[in-house]
Specification:
By secondary structure, the chain is an alpha/beta fold. The chain is 32% helix and 18% strand. It is built from eight helices and ten strands. Helix 2 packs parallel to helix 3.
């Protein structure tokens, strides 16, 4: 897993696997996308545009140059075989965690979070999940398929169970999903207002954070597969990430659902790049 020559990396993430405390990797998969595909191209665009960023975050007063982060590239996944793709993602995530490292996975559609969350749960059985998103993702199936971007949090509940999933920014889903959430998850609709207090409750627990970028209002972030009006601002997302610094045991995270083809201005990719930088620095001890 050593870094090969002439492979593009995210800015400031040039350490070898052996040297790194945090591993960054991409998942170019959008095989269950139900509306507008294109998230498979996200990490390639993010790496390229990351060189428009500084390595230093004035929001967190941390610098990627001071961190030990390895960019492992994108996993190679088979087309047309969702179960095999999820197995390969799980295998890689499990290895990273078993090697004593943290990771930031960048999707890809939201289903790719399922095997990474599961790997974190297997390493940390007391795991809590913070889910920031526009959509509930709590369907038991989508058109008869249980492995779907629309059911990723429901499938995560299959092993996490009640009282361990905390959802924020949610503004879209079936009536049945919102009713189901009342009994099985903590769900704050429309905003992130209670995130701060929940982080304080979870600060000593092992936590995984999944950020679906469509939580942002499509007026500022149109580059996503399922845009949902009524979302948060980018500044609100940055403030939420700053709150995550209070977690004492953030073990892994992901950022998903950038679809670069739907924003030719590049603004959505720029926001995704900055989000990746901030989350990498959040994972750094």
């Amino acid at each position: 897993m050593n870094k090969q020559l002439n492979i593009s990396t995210f800015i400031g993430c040039e350490k070898t696997y052996e040297e790194a405390n945090v591993v960054l990797f991409g998942i170019p998969f959008d095989g269950t996308t139900s509306f507008r595909p294109g998230t498979r191209f996200a990490m390639q665009a993010i790496r390229t545009d990351s060189f428009g960023l500084e390595t230093y975050s004035p929001y967190l007063d941390k610098d990627l140059e001071d961190a030990s982060i390895y960019d492992g590239g994108d996993l190679e996944l088979p087309f047309g075989n969702t179960k095999k793709a999820l197995e390969l993602i799980h295998e890689y995530s499990q290895k990273v965690l078993n090697d004593g490292k943290k990771f930031l996975m960048v999707g890809g559609e939201h289903l790719v979070s399922l095997p990474t969350i599961q790997a974190a749960y297997e390493k940390y059985p007391n795991l809590r999940l913070i889910h920031i998103d526009a959509h509930t993702d709590l369907r038991d199936d989508y058109l008869g398929e249980k492995l779907s971007h629309a059911s990723v949090i429901r499938r995560s509940h299959d092993f996490l169970g009640n009282g361990r999933i905390f959802q924020f920014g949610i503004r879209s889903g079936m009536r049945e999903e919102f009713e189901w959430a009342k009994k099985h998850t903590y769900l704050e609709p429309f905003s992130l207002n209670t995130l701060k207090e929940k982080i304080l409750e979870l600060k000593d627990e092992p936590v995984y954070v999944t950020i679906d970028l469509d939580v942002l209002d499509p007026g500022v972030f149109p580059g996503t597969g399922t845009p949902e009006p009524g979302g948060i601002t980018y500044r609100e997302l940055l403030d939420a990430i700053k709150q995550l610094q209070k977690l004492n045991n953030l073990v892994a995270a992901d950022v998903v659902e950038l679809s670069p083809p739907y924003d030719s201005s590049g603004a959505s990719t720029a926001m995704a790049c900055k989000t990746v930088r901030e989350m990498l620095l959040t994972l750094v001890d």
